[in-house]
């Protein structure tokens, strides 16, 4: 379940509706580019860090299995029937590349997150965007991400939020905006396990996610230059403009990801 504020809350880093659809956190202006790199056993490389093919395939396999258990219509047809393995594979690789790029930039800037920080972000994101952790994980499963792998996406969101705090620390929603949004959520779903004081820091960022993402774009553009991204041609090619893995001529990757059928909107 997503809740409206202004047009809608779009939590800063992870625009999950877009991220799970393969578009990613933010859109950078640029041209397609891939560094020349050897991909022995790797699906991609970000700077000096490799993303192994086995990791990619494991997440995709678990995601398809999770989607099998999620009905999407009155006919009882499983959500997996609406998923294309190659599309999901490309979306997943996009997510892993983005996470590595964010992690490297966070390291350069001395931004750290504890496991508790990520867990708190996970809970707040799920409750404030979907009403509950269970509802969020079910929506993610329908999009092809098993519960154990959703944490990868949420960590990306938490990292982008932390980076945005460093880049634009004063870009936050007002007290009136966060209070109005909190009350709206409670009106729609009833009592939630977050007090206003607990929810406020997250809402203050979610509400102005688009503005925060715009401020972060130049930083991520520079990060990509420092950590060139190379995709194994078997899986496609990296497109800087879309900040995503897209199909490449002669690859096993499919066409660019279609508009998502599962709306997992959020950003930090």
Count of alpha/pi helices: 9
CATH class: Mainly Alpha
Beta strand %: 5-15%
Order of helices and strands: HEEHHHHHHHHEEE
The first-to-last residue Cα distance is 17 Å
Structural class: mainly alpha
User: Percent helix among the residues?
Assistant: 40-55%
Largest sheet: 3 strands, antiparallel
Low-confidence stretches: 1-36, 250-268
- Estimate nothing, just give the exact number of structural domains: 1
Order of strands across the widest beta sheet? 2-1-3
**Would you report the number of β strands?**
5
- The CATH architecture comes to Orthogonal Bundle
Q: Can you characterise this structure?
A:
- There is one protein chain.
- The chain is mostly helical.
- It has one domain: Triger factor/SurA peptide-binding fold, CATH 1.10.4030.
- It is built from nine helices and five strands.
- The protein has a three-stranded antiparallel β-sheet with strand order 2-1-3. Strands 4-5 form a two-stranded antiparallel sheet.
- Helix 3 (85-108) packs parallel to helix 6, helix 6 crosses helix 9 (209-226) and helix 7 (175-189) packs across helix 8.
- The longest helix has 24 residues, at 85-108.
- Mean pLDDT is 82; it is low at 1-36 and 250-268.
- It holds the Pfam family SurA_N_3.
- This is SurA-like protein.
């Amino acid at each position: 379940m997503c809740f409206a504020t202004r047009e809608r809350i779009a939590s800063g880093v992870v625009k999950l509706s877009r991220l799970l659809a393969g578009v990613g956190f933010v859109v950078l202006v640029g041209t397609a580019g891939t560094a020349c790199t050897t991909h022995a056993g790797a699906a991609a490389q970000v700077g000096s860090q490799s993303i192994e093919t086995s990791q990619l395939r494991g997440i995709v396999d678990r995601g398809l299995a999770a989607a099998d258990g999620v009905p999407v219509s009155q006919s009882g047809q499983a959500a997996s029937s609406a998923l294309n393995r190659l599309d999901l594979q490309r979306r997943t690789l996009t997510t892993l590349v983005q996470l590595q790029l964010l992690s490297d930039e966070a390291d350069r800037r001395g931004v750290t997150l504890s496991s508790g920080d990520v867990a708190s972000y996970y809970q707040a994101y799920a409750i404030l965007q979907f009403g509950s952790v269970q509802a969020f994980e079910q929506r993610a499963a329908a999009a092809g991400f098993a519960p154990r792998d959703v944490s990868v996406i949420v960590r990306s969101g938490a990292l982008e939020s932390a980076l945005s705090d460093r880049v634009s620390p004063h870009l936050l929603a007002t007290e009136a905006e966060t209070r109005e949004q909190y009350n709206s959520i409670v009106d729609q779903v009833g009592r939630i396990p977050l007090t206003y004081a607990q929810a406020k820091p997250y809402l203050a960022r979610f509400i102005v996610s688009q503005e925060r993402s715009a401020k972060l774009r130049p930083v991520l553009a520079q990060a990509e230059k420092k950590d060139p991204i190379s995709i194994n041609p078997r899986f496609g090619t990296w497109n800087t403009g879309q900040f995503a893995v897209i199909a490449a001529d002669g690859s096993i990757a499919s066409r660019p990801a279609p508009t998502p059928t599962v709306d997992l909107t959020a950003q930090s």
